[in-house]
Target: NAD(P)H-dependent oxidoreductase
Amino acid sequence: MNTKKRIIGICGSASRNSGNLAILKYISELGKSEMELEIIADLTEFPHYKTELTDENVPKKITDFRNKISCSDGIIICTPEYVFSIPSGLKNILEWCVSTTVFSDKPVGLITASASGEKGHEELKLIMKTIQTYFTDDTTLLIQGIKGKASKDGEIIDGKTETEIHKLIKSFKELTK
Model:
């Protein structure tokens, strides 16, 4: 019996109708026969990281997030670059997990979709390597000029980008086997 993989999609964008969210929705539709993608789209719902709460009194929202990550078969992060870095909301939820092992050995797909994105993409890969996730060059993707590649309606409107996303998803599925 072939059961669907439980995947958590994290949208790093603070915009409601971002190209990053469109990509995650596209991936969800694309892989719906093989994976169940739960998208976490609003990172503003998570409390700001406080070191003194990492061991005791961890907020329920964070405990629930950690449990989702821990119980998943893999994670796909799709994020823009803000000021040559990853967005603060994404950094915040990752910081809540640094002192845990919830990301350790998890297969991840990493997509940076932004105007440029090079620095943010490198930073995202470094952070994910530091928290011991597992990814390959084929499960990472930098999409530059995203505003011309995804519509406001959430459709991927660039053929090359569509092909690259398909390739990433194929590699990500292999990684989660």
Summary: The chain is about 35% helix and 20% strand. The chain has a mean pLDDT of 94.
